[in-house]
Design a protein that fits this description.
Elements lengths: L9 H17 L1 E10 L3 E6 L6 E7 L5 E6 L6 E6 L4 E6 L4 E6 L6 E10 L5 E5 L2
Antiparallel strand pairs: 1-8, 2-7, 2-9, 3-6, 3-8, 4-5, 4-7
């Protein structure tokens, strides 16, 4: 009787490695947004995702926007304030949430943003400013 043997030709292994690489690429992506944040509101992006992401862009509106990050169960940490015409470049760690807070109670904030990294499962929403 012949012993049972599994044969894996090189082409099968190469195909399997390609599928693994493609699966990893699914988690990475780019989101382009012309974001508007109503007066007295904070835009919430992410929280609980496996990988980190980066938010870059420009404040195209008439009011300053405060950029914060928040880990689950922790207080928000201010990363900086983006004046009108200013640039934002914030790296957000795995599991963290990016918060973009409109500083005005009367004017809408506007930002042109690009989000890269682990964008496959990013939650998005708005909340009242504290």
């Amino acid at each position: 009787m012949m012993p049972f043997k599994i044969v894996r030709p090189a082409s099968v292994m190469a195909a399997a490695l390609t599928l693994v690489a493609l699966g990893a690429a699914v988690h990475a992506g780019t989101i382009n947004s012309n974001l508007q944040i109503d007066p007295g509101q904070t835009f919430e992006l992410g929280g609980g995702q496996e990988g980190g992401f980066v938010v870059t862009g420009t404040n195209t509106g008439p009011v300053a926007v405060v950029v914060l990050s928040k880990a689950d169960g922790a207080a928000a940490v201010e990363r900086g304030t983006v004046a009108p015409g200013g640039a934002v470049d914030a790296q957000i760690a795995p599991g963290e949430m990016a918060l973009l807070r409109n500083t005005s109670s009367q004017k809408t904030a506007r930002l042109k943003l690009k989000v890269t990294g682990d964008t496959s499962s990013l939650g998005m929403g708005y909340a009242d400013n504290p």
